[in-house]
Design brief:
Elements: E1 3-6, H1 12-23, E2 27-32, H2 35-45, E3 49-53, H3 59-72, E4 77-80, H4 101-126, E5 133-137, H5 144-147, H6 161-179, E6 184-188, H7 206-217, E7 228-230, E8 233-234
Parallel strand pairs: 1-2, 1-4, 2-3, 4-5, 5-6, 6-7
Antiparallel strand pairs: 7-8
Helix pairs in contact: 1-7, 3-4, 4-6
């Protein structure tokens, strides 16, 4: 049976990804910073869901979670889903002129350093798997091509921190994929999905957004690696 860890899995895209992967036969660790919410999510998902307390910004929390997973038998798939966005006092997207270094640091701590922290910690487990997979949840806003195309919808997004963090995630994906050719390591763009991250202003459901995450979590040893995908196919960097 395939065993999967999803960070930030107590709600939104992470929860829906867990639900779909469990339906596909995976055993899924529900990584959640909040223990109460994580346990509730795992209970809703049923017997193949296992809660693990996991704060991607905390070394000790990550180490403890990985020890638990290792003791239970190991890991085949990692989905780096946990992510945050810089927001103003009224929960609005912050424009470039208002973004501070502290805002950047906070976003990068979760979206970039958290991705590296968790991936680094699980590499020994993934290297023991016969079909190891890593899926990094990126964003269409990570595409330099899209953000520099004047008439592309992404070009109108004003913030610096979130897109920069996701562009960094894409680079992390490329470098890990080159370093570990036996693994399938890809970045995905779920699309503008209704989640708490955007105040539920997205234009598609979590079921639709999770589809590409779930698809890439199930790629076989002959599948793509080092790529950047949405539901329709490869995206430009």
């Amino acid at each position: 049976m395939t065993t999967t860890l999803i960070t930030g899995a107590n709600k939104g895209l992470g929860f829906e990804t867990a639900r779909q992967l469990i339906a596909a036969g995976h055993t899924v660790y529900i990584g959640s910073r909040d223990a109460s919410r994580g346990r509730q999510a795992a209970e809703k998902l049923g017997a193949q869901a296992r809660f693990v307390q996991l704060d991607v910004t905390d070394d000790a929390s990550v180490a403890a979670a990985i020890r638990t997973i290792e003791a239970d038998g190991g890991l085949d798939v990692l989905v780096n889903n946990a992510g945050i966005e810089a927001r103003g006092k009224n929960n609005e997207v912050v424009g470039a002129g208002e973004v501070t270094a502290d805002m950047m640091r906070e976003v990068f701590e979760t979206n970039v350093f958290g991705t590296v922290r968790v991936t680094h910690a699980v590499l020994p487990l993934l290297r023991r798997s016969t079909a190891p997979v890593v899926v990094n949840v990126s964003s269409g806003l990570a595409s330099l091509t899209h953000l520099t195309t004047p008439d592309h919808p992404a070009a109108f997004y004003p913030d610096i921190a979130y897109p920069a963090s996701k562009t960094a995630v894409n680079m992390i994906t490329v470098q890990y994929a080159k370093a570990f050719p036996q693994m399938r390591i890809n970045a995905v763009e779920p699309g503008f999905t209704k989640t708490d991250l955007n105040g539920n202003t997205g234009v598609q459901t979590v079921e639709e957004g999770a589809e590409i995450i779930v698809r890439m979590a199930q790629v076989g040893p002959d599948g793509p690696t080092g790529g950047y995908f949405d539901a329709a196919g490869r995206l430009p960097w």
